[in-house]
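Subject: design request, 120 residues
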């Protein structure tokens, strides 16, 4: 496995950014919207950092995955799995469904699609 340091560095920067947003920012724009846009890009940079081969439609796959997690929130997956007392898992999976999150994931997907087109 060949590591792509450029994407891995991007992943680390985005991970730190997401942690800062989660721990220190409690507003009406950055945390609920920018954080959700960045999470798609975060997952993308991680996958591209560790998988050398280009994956066609990766951004779309990530949108589907993130949307599935969001819909799992609708069905209170954290409670169903009896993980409501685990703060880390509750934060990662999330505990409240919001359709706006899926729109933010789609924006992240669009940004990645444009990025891929420009990169070629």
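Subject: RE: design request

Done. Sequence follows.
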């Amino acid at each position: 496995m060949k590591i792509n340091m450029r994407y891995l560095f991007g992943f680390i920067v985005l991970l730190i950014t997401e942690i800062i947003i989660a721990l220190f920012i409690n507003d009406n724009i950055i945390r609920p919207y920018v954080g959700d846009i960045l999470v798609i890009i975060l997952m993308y940079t991680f996958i591209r950092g560790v998988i050398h081969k280009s994956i066609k439609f990766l951004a779309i796959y990530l949108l589907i995955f993130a949307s599935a997690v969001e819909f799992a929130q609708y069905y209170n997956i954290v409670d169903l799995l009896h993980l409501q007392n685990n703060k880390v898992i509750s934060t990662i999976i999330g505990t409240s469904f919001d359709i706006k999150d899926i729109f933010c994931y789609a924006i992240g997907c669009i940004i990645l699609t444009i990025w891929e087109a420009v990169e070629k």
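The chain has a mean pLDDT of 94.
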